[in-house]
Amino acid sequence: MSWGRVQAVVETAQDGRPSRTIGGKLNRLVLLSVGVALIVGTALSCWGEAQRFLRSKRDVMLATAQVFASASSRAVAGSDRVAVLQAIRAVARVPGLIYVEVRGRDGHPLAQIGSGERLNADLVLAAAEDASPLALLGSRTMTLTVPVIDGGVAVGEIELVGETRGLAGQFWRTMLYAGLSAAAALAIGLLFSVRLQRSITVPLGQLTEAMRRVGRTRDYSVPVEVASDDETGVLAARFNGMMAEIREAVDRLLAREKEIVERLSLAGELRDDQTGQHVLRVSEISRIIATELGLPAAFVDDLCRASPMHDVGKIAIPDSILHKPGPLTPEERRIMEGHARCGYEILKSSSSELVQLAAEIAISHHERWDGAGYPNRLAGEAIPVSGRITAVADVCDALLSERPYKKPWSFERVRDLLRQEAGAHFDPACVEALLARWPELERIYEGRAPVAQAA
C-alpha cells in the first residue's frame, strides 16, 4: 500500500461532520414522497368527487325535467300558462333547484319560478354528455335544458338551474379523508424510514467516527465492529483491512525512522561518548519530565525519539576541542557552542515531523530560562518546551556521568543544583517534574558505582 494512499485516508478522516447526513436525506425523501403522494391522491380524489357530483346532479335534474316534460306536454303545447305554472311549482320543490322556466314553441316564457339567478360562469349541461369537473369547480350554478315533446313534436322546452354548493362540502370531506390518510401514511413512512436509516446510518456512522478518530489520534489499531451482512458490512470489513495495511505501513515507516534517528544520534554522540549511552539516558529522563508535566502521549513518544539528536551538531566540532580535558578558551567555547546551530542546520530541512522536532531541540536545548543561554538568547516560555525539557535531561545526565574533564556527581548534589538553577538556567516546572519522580531517575543509573557526596 502506497504512502500516498495512507495520507489520503488520514486526510479524509480529518474532515469535520458532514453538513447533510444520510438519515436526514432519507427522512426528506420519505416526506417528499408522502407529500407528492398526498397532493396527487387528493387531486385525484377531488377530481373523482367532482365528477360524481356532476353526474349525480345532472341525472337528478335530467330525471326531474323529463318527468315534468312528460306530465305537462299538453299544457305546454296548448300554451296553458296556469297549468304549466302549477306543474313547475311541484318541480321547484326538488332540493337543489333554484330556478325553473318553461318556454313555448316560439321560445317565449310560459311560466317561471325561482330566483332567476344566472351567472356568466354558469355550467351549461347537455342531457347526453358529461361536462368537465374543472368547469364545475369554477361555477356556482348548473343549467340543464330539456325539450318538451307532445305527439313526437317538440312543443317547447324546460330549463332547470341547480346550485353547486353541495360540492364544497364533499370537497372538504375529501380533503379531510386525504389528510387523515396522509398523516397515517406519513407516520408509517417515517417509522419505516427510521428503521431503514438506522440500518444504514448506524454502521456508516461507526465508520465515520472511526475515520475521525484515526485522523485525530493516528491510532490504526482499533477495528470497526459492524454486525451487518449487507454492503455496509462489506465496507466495514474492507475499512478494517485497509486500516490493518495502514498500520503495518506506518509501523514499518516508524521503525525505519527510529533506526535512522538512533544511528544519526550515535554518529554525533560516539565522538563525545564512546558508549553512546548519554543520548539514551537523555531520552529516558525526558520521558520522565514530559510525562509528569502531563503532555500528550504522542508528543512524549516523539520527544523521546527526537531528544537523542540534541548534540548531533558535535560532528562538526574538532576533536581537539571536543575531547580537551581542561577548560576551553573563549574561542574554543565559541566553536563548541556552534554545535547547537550546526545540528539545527543538519536537521531543519527534513520533511519528517520527528526530525523537525529534533532540529527544534538541537537549537534550543542550550537556551536558559533567564535568557543568558545560546545561540538565540531566548528566555522563559519563548524557549520551546521540547528544548526546556531536554536542557534539564542533558545537564542532569552530564553531571551524573563521568566525562574527560570531571568525575560523576552524586544524586544529592545534582538534585541540589537543579533546585538552585530552577528559574535561572532551567524551567522551574521541568525541574519540579523531575524532582517529583526522582526515584525513577535513580533507577536509570542502577549498577553505577556509588559516588561520594563531596565528589
UniProtKB/TrEMBL annotation:
The keyword Oxidoreductase does not apply. GO terms for biological process: signal transduction. Residues 253-450 form the HD-GYP domain. SUPFAM superfamilies: HAMP domain-like, HD-domain/PDEase-like. Keywords: Membrane, Transmembrane, Transmembrane helix. Gene3D superfamilies: 6.10.340.10, Hypothetical protein af1432 (1.10.3210.10). The chain crosses the membrane at residues 29-48, 175-194. GO terms for molecular function: phosphoric diester hydrolase activity. Residues 198-251 form the HAMP domain. CDD domains: HAMP, HDc. GO terms for cellular component: membrane. This is HD domain-containing protein.
